[in-house]
Amino acid sequence: MQLWHTLNLPELFNSLGSNEAGLSSDQASHRLNQYGYNELPEKKALFWKKLLEPFKSIFIMLLLGAAAISYVSGQNLDGTIILIIITINMAIYYSQQQTTNRVIKSLKKHSEQFAQVLRDGQIVNISSRLLVPGDVIVLGEGQKIPADARLIHQDNLYLDESALTGESLPVVKVVSTLSAQKRLYERDNMVFSGTYVLSGSGRAMVTTTGSHTEFGAIAKLVTRAEPKSPMQQKVDGIVAKLIKVLAALALVVFGLSLARGIEPSEALRFALSFSVSAIPEDLPIAMTIVFVLGRLKTNWRLQPLGLQVKILI
Description:
Elements: H1 9-16, H2 25-35, H3 47-52, H4 58-72, H5 76-110, E1 114-119, E2 122-127, E3 136-139, E4 148-160, H6 162-165, E5 171-173, E6 190-191, E7 196-208, H7 214-222, H8 230-259, H9 264-278, H10 283-302
Antiparallel strand pairs: 1-2, 1-3, 3-7, 4-5, 4-6, 4-7
């Protein structure tokens, strides 16, 4: 990993193959193919995974099993009704997914950022997606920094880096060379993606873009799967135990049906129907509501005692 804050300006220019006049259009085009767009990558699921997503539900699988048994036993009407219900459910699910994706794409389009860059020795406005290492960006008051960059010129430049480091006070930036031991919040010769210029002006040479920036590293941590909370673990445990109990009861129902002389296909369809209707799919929601109401009731009782209790939802 290159420590950009430790290089002096000649070393920086040599390492990035650039200079104070920035890159040419041909150089920028070649580097764009090499490094890719300056944006955080999206997690894209494969088409077949998206297609099978709704079928991960145990309830859908049970309904499909009931439909198959209905057709095998000659109950075509019942099987068709079940398939229609499943189809409607799938259509609603895919429609919601498409609507969500369109909204996200629209928001990304409207939030597209532009930056002033030196290209072919001239200052031009380009989309921040097209920035590449070696570009020289022009910084001004109120601007959001589009990529990690090393300062090569500054005039009373102050930045808000609270989104990255948590520092609430303005951070002064200077053109200097620092030691390798300097931590992120101490690198006052660097500007970082996602931070804002509060005052002053300057120019900086882009060092890293996209997911390789410091902000991109944080984004990778955020996108990791979060462990379930203790309450979620308890609810999942209760649901798992109930499903096991209901599965055992379904086997008993199936056995009793056979003992009463009911045809195996009809008995199996009855057992599946019993399982679908008995499994508490809304139990997590119900327990959450009960938990919230319990907190509200506790707060209401404590208020006459002069205690101030915050309701956390």
